[in-house]
Amino acid sequence: MSAYTNGLVFWKHFEKKQDTIFNYLKSEQYEELNDIIQELDEEVMEMSGAHFFVENFYDSFEMTFDTGPNKTTQYLCQMLCDIAPKSVKQNWIMNACLPAMSQKAIQAMVQIKNEEYTLADFHVFYQIENDMLDCKVYCPGFNLIGNPENKKEMSMYLLELAIGQLAYEAYICRVDFIDTPDSNMKFCQMMDFYEVIMALVEKNHWKEYDKPIDIYSVYQPIQDFAHDALRKDMKLIFTTHPLLVEQTIEDKEEVLADLSSKDGEFGYVYYSNPFHNKEDALYRQKLSKELDEAISKVHAGKVVGGAIGKSFSYIDWIVYDKDLFMKVFNQLKKQLDASVELYYQKF
């Protein structure tokens, strides 16, 4: 089995239950619906680490993979959405991560002491900081909570629920709470904050993203650049999975073991730099795009980043199906520049 074939099995299970799910949603038989969704949720959790839920709005049906910030989980759930059968894609709005203002957010309620609060009772105070937003969340019930850590955790959870995973990762640099409103900061109801964010993105021409896994980070390792060994010569690293980079540099294996338990693996394609000048970066970028297009087309893997080194260049991968990945990779090697020998190595 592989992460990819696990996904195919999941969709076969889902298709068998799809008509029943539709009927329960339409007739609002939520107790019966929850029994089915709980089973699917457990299956999704085991294969990706995400929660799974469904909703309906009037005549449309929506499914969501609630990934949280875990990048491995986000990649696996995007793959799941990509390989969904036509019968599912035609009938469902599919969210590979938590969207803004889902039904889950609209119905969210927290109890503080004996009082109940919805998102309508929360306000967000915000200010711009380097193309992102520093946020402070206010609720009249906060003065009833003694532990500041609880208030901060509640603020972060509800803000993410309100604006969705993508906006939370792309545009929020800091979240805290305040016990009294701050007259020096702009503010809005939490339920309106997503629209405020997107208006600021458009007005200030901030970078826009389609998915959380499109958000790249760039690093320059602090080390001796004279080192020529594999993965030790890296001068510039770019990644959509910062924790993977951090742990592989430090020889830690939690991220690797997590994906392995879900029948996938992280690895990298590497080759000797052909130019030893600025052309190496352009060549690596072009090669990465070519490999990614071909391999992601068959859902065998996806580029998650890469690096330029003193001696080698690297293209980092999440591999959903090792056998299929190697088959396509070996075919591509025969078609590409023969002067550059490509190798694949598991992390």
Helix proportion range: 40-55%
H-E string: HHEEHHEHEEEEHEEHEEHHEHEEHE
Per CATH, the class of the largest domain reads Alpha Beta
Distance between the termini: 20 Å
**Count of the domains:** 3
Largest sheet: 6 strands, antiparallel
The helix count comes to 11
Which of globular, elongated, flat, extended, rod-shaped describes the shape?
globular
Structural class: alpha+beta
Give the oligomeric state of the chains in this entry, treating copies of one chain as homo and distinct chains as hetero: single chain
Query: pLDDT under 50 segments (min length 5)?
Result: none
Instruction: Count every beta strand, where a strand is a DSSP E run of 2 or more residues.
Output: 15
The average pLDDT is 95
Instruction: Could you tell me the CATH topology label of the largest domain.
Output: Alpha-Beta Plaits
